[in-house]
Amino acid sequence: MDLIQQARQRTFHAVNTELIDLYWQVGEYISRKLTTATWGEGVVDQLARYIARKHPDIKGFTRRNLFRMHQFYETYRAEPKLSPLVRELPWTHNLLILSRAKRPEEREFYLRLALQEKWPTKVAADSAYQNAKRHSDRQNARVEHDKSLARVMTSVLKDNTELFKQFSDNESFRRWLTDTIFALTYE
């Protein structure tokens, strides 16, 4: 069974890396087009319509998502330390970090932390949370999620006192982290 799980993980990682690279390339393409476009040409709208018309079976390339890909590229292109890290996380993780962390240092901190500690994986594996997701509504699942996150954080934070201090004393950090992990694990 370990062989199967390991192969699935490698497959997921390879597919994720390719998707992130694709979104990076799309963002770069949009960036180049916007640089040479005249105001009002609607580059992103045209591209979204073109993709929908030529490939109606492909999802995820709406106007909104294309703008996100552009934002993703623009945010990380000048960050050589961060651009390899973003390829290691799923798109949803990247969007959450991108939307909530405004400074490069914040983004780096959350990217590294998410990769190092695998918080969403640990929370998602919690049996009480899994049970609540399967057999309860979203609100009760959220309660079990928060309990699971507290258990994960307690075990992780024993080794990281600064992070523990932030989680304990900084209400906005605790709320952000709790909301982020819940969004990543409740699908």
Could you describe the 3D structure shown?
By secondary structure, this protein is mainly α. It folds into two domains: 2-117, no CATH class; 120-185, no CATH class. The protein has eleven helices and no strands. The mean pLDDT is 83.
Give me the secondary-structure category: mainly alpha
Rounded Rg? 19 Å
**Treating each run of at least 4 consecutive H or I residues as one helix, how many helices?**
11
Averaged pLDDT: 83
**In total, how many domains does the architecture comprise?**
2
Tell me, briefly, the overall form.
globular
What secondary-structure arrangement, pairings included, does this model have?
Layout: H1 2-36, H2 43-54, H3 63-76, H4 83-86, H5 91-100, H6 104-117, H7 119-124, H8 127-135, H9 138-157, H10 161-169, H11 171-185
Task: From the structure above, extract its key features.
globular, 79% helix, 187 residues, mainly alpha, 2 domains
Compact overview of the structure:
The chain is an all-alpha fold and 187 residues long. The chain has helices at 2-36, 43-54, 63-76, 83-86, 91-100, 104-117, 119-124, 127-135, 138-157, 161-169, 171-185. Helix content is 79%, strand content 0%.
